[in-house]
Amino acid sequence: TRTAQALRTLPKTELHLHIEGTLEPELALRLAERNGVTLPFDGLDDLRSRYHFADLQSFLDLYYQLMSVLRTREDFADLMFAYLTHAHEDGVRRAEIFFDPQVHMNNGLDYNLVLDGLQDGIARGRDAYGIDAALILSVVRDLPVESAQALLDAAAPRASELLAIGLDSAEVGYPPELFEQVYERAAGMGLHLVAHAGEEGPAEYIRQALDVLHVERIDHGVRIVDDPALVQRVAAEGIGLTVCPLSNLRLQVVDDVANVPIRQLLDAGVRVTVNSDDPAYFGGYIARNYTALAETGLPVTALATIAGNSIEACFAPEEGKAAMR
Ligand code: ES4
Ligand code: ZN
To answer: Where is the catalytic site (predicted)?
Structure first.
């Protein structure tokens, strides 16, 4: 439709995207074959039948299982380039991309192999499309804090290749304050600071991410609507919220896309952005998230505001932002 086309061509950034969440089932099976990895699925139809999630954990179980097919530098390069192709088609000028090295390291891979492969894919995307991409080192919060510190040990020699640190995976029971020292150290390495908070967890975790971790953006953050004073504060401070509507729907954070509190947050003056999170699992890349909101009656003018917010909330230098506006 014309609206869908207009939403695809809006200049935008993507600020909440897990590269491992772009692993399409077809590619997962192809890489399993290429790498001699055995998966407990009987072909594509059987694998496809597993994409029904009751909550965050049931998604994470499949997501971590499929990550075991990623073995070589080329695998990571191919995965990154495939994502950047989708992103370019959806009007994305810059992407700030999470990766989960602890999981790959637990699968026996070297941190530097993972980083090299992702950087190869980013270089291919820049050459092919002129798209700008940067990496967010994401800490898996349901692994021990010592594992996060070991991750920083591995990442430190090449810290200048990273944009930011993030915090993801199972949220409830793993409050941000557990990672105070990890974030302090990451800040000392020159990284920007973001964290998932208020997806399944309470608004209190958003407050901790701000006050204890000193994050500059909140990933998801939709539960902030339970705390009106915190909404006002985030609006006043210009903190970006990276909301992911199809993710919230598929993980049953909401029962309908219309109930993702986008309009409420925009009306409160919050710097809301729209993103795809794990598009291979949740039914669409970023433009599909924009159109899903349009289908709820959110005006295209509001979606243009959101695309503008995504440029303001990104960590590109000011001249880079100006070139995207
Ligand atoms: C994630 Cl949707 C979501 N939430 C938390 N952690 C994640 N890792 C990948 N996708
Ligand atoms: Zn996420």
So the answer is: 199 (proton donor)
